[in-house]
Amino acid sequence: MLKRTLLILALSAGFIGVAQMQTPAPSPGSTLEQMVGLTEVTVNYSRPSMKGRTVFGNLVPYGKLWRTGANANTTVSFSDDVTVGGKTLKAGTYAVFTKPNADKWEVLFYSDTNNWGTPAKWEDGKVAASITVPSVKASPTAETFTITLDNLHNNGGTLGMWWENTYAGVPFEVPTKAKAMESIEAAMAGPTANDYYGAASYYFQEGIEMEKAKEYVDQAVAMNPEAFWMMRQQSLIYAKMGDKDGAIAAAKKSLAAAEKAGNADYVKMNKDSLKEWGAM
After folding, report:
1. Rounded to an integer, what distance in angstroms lies between the CA atom of residue 27 and that of residue 75?
2. What is the pLDDT of residues 51-108, one digit of tens each?
3. How is the chain split into domains, by residue range?
4. Can you give the three-state secondary structure of 161-221, one letter per residue?
């Protein structure tokens, strides 16, 4: 019995010895994933907090290379080639380093991402792109360092960096038009109503190929005559092309179909357009 008791105590001590202590990270890691147009953008970084400290010009000195966060490299990944500061960044992952100043930041995209903090030896040849952007006052104060993807549109966005009362944003462009056109051309080999509708909607949003937009939306409506959302898009395309009578006719059909389907949003949108075009 004594031996068994000693064995149990020994095993218990062993389990206690390998137990992992858990405490919160001072600068917790964060991942930001965002589709920008048709390009996947992913940011991985650690988030330090002010904790009563003055950040820029003190904790983060002006004019000095900063890791743009804490711990391992802050990285941004693009699934396609993108454009930053007029220069092409190939699809891949880059470390983001910055040199903050009171009125502007220099932002550098570095091809070597395997550093803890800044590189022991900086190599200019590894700078894939760089850009200088304005630094502006931000409100409210950001206690914790935050990276954002702002100002999203079909063809780009802004990589934003916000801490304390300072914000700096890096605009970038993505190749949505080329990818979308390639996809549309492939889909048009055997299109469905949704393919026609999607192509027409994209052309309308971008203000391009409006004759094709009209042709495709007409095809979509013909293939799906109860689709009030397609008729709604048809009316907008006609209006944009200056065909007011066609726009009114399409909007009335969309309105009737939306009322039948009980879709209040499309009922309101069509009524608003009909009023705007003088038909109600």
Report:
1. 15
2. 999 999 999 999 999 999 999 999 999 999 999 999 999 999 999 999 999 999 999 9
3. 24-173, 176-276
4. EEEEEEEEEEEEECCHHHHHHHHHHHHCCCCCHHHHHHHHHHHHHHCCCHHHHHHHHHHHH
Query: Within 10 Å of residue 234's Cβ, how many Cβ atoms?
Result: 28
* pTM summary value: 0.80
Which residues have a Cβ under 8 Å from the Cβ of 224 and sit 6 or more positions away?
Answer: 193, 197, 230
CA angle 39, 45, 48 (to 5 degrees): 145
**CA 167 to the chain's CA centroid:** 17
Using an 8 Å Cβ cutoff, are 139 and 167 in contact? no
Length of the chain, in residues: 280
Nearest to 173 by CA among 80, 96, 68: 80
Tell me how far CA of residue 61 lies from CA of 57, 67, 132, in angstroms: 4, 12, 17
Q: Cα(first)–Cα(last) distance of the chain, in Å?
A: 95
Whole-angstrom Cα distance, residue 107 to residue 15?
Answer: 48
25 phi/psi in degrees, rounded to 5:
-75, 135
Class of domain 176-276: mainly alpha
Compute the distance between CA of residue 38 and CA of residue 80 in angstroms, rounded to an integer.
9
Cis, bond preceding 191 (omega within 30 deg of 0): no
Burial class (CB in 10 A: 0-12, 13-18, 19+), 78: buried
Strands (E), 111-245: 127-153, 156-173
Neighbours of 83 (CB within 10 A): 16
